[in-house]
Amino acid sequence: MRWDNLAETGHGRVADAALFGADAVTTRTFDTPEFAGITFHEIRARTVLNRVPGASRMPFEWTVNPYRGCTHACVYCFARKTHSYLDLDTGIGFDTQIVVKVNAPEVLRRQLASPRWHGDHVAMGTNVDCYQRAEGRYRLMPGILSALRDRANPFSILTKGTLILRDLDLLRQSAEVTDVGISVSVGFTDTALWHTVEPGTPAPERRLDVVRTFTEHGMGVGVLMAPVIPFLSDEPAQLRATVRAIAAAGATSVTPLVLHLRPGAREWFMAWLGEHHPYLVRRYERLYADGAYAPKWYQRRITRQVHELAQEYGIGPTRAEMPRRVRPPEQEEEPAPAGPTQLTLI
To answer: Is the CB of residue 157 less than 8 Å from the CB of residue 128?
Structure first.
């Protein structure tokens, strides 16, 4: 997906492919400590519903991503490759050059109202985090959640961001009319590892506070234990400490996911590994010699260990789905565009 697929000019015509030359793009920086060194490229998107490729193993077809690039700066982030589609750097550029779809809420509301839209599940946070720091300034998610709530459209959110607590009331309202899935990503509880591998994220304990708060308000939250990082967070004692903390926070489920290293992320992660843990470089080259994923035997071992620990600590199943409760629209509106394809989480 190129820049010209993301924006249109004031005359409704697709902008030129020049990266920042289109009138539809406004580039900003903010003179505040939290956004030091960050550049925001504000665009007016043509569509925000993205279709997941048919070969994906994900249990949904559609995603919404109001941002591209992420200040969480996770060195392993698989989505880094997507920045190259805009001719942006997949390393530090991914962390500091953030594309903001400033009209995402109104575009989504229009697309959901189309008679061609059938209320399919919409997943958020599957590419970059919709509750990264930029959301505190741009506040796109309340409008997005309101649009989904008003159509009783089922959706899910995966996040490392504690800012999701700001929208707790909207999420509770949505859960009264449709199926809402909330997942928080906590791959490990080692604070030293967190500081270097996920430098822009809230601490793991703060993310578990999100789980506690939602649980106290009657909303179940699952935890994606991702990534489990080979040789850095996969020791039995480390896995036990993480699952124990997840259980203590009241999570309804825990799903482990071993680190995968797709092109774009692989180069950035291996550079980080060479700087911080050079003795592991050869081991990683052997473990990931066949591609982006660790060997099946390794993945199965981690999954088995985490599931056994989850059973030991009494982490139960997730909630059953709730039905949609909304009347069909009374008048036709413009059809929902097919939208660009979206890379998937797994």
So the answer is: no
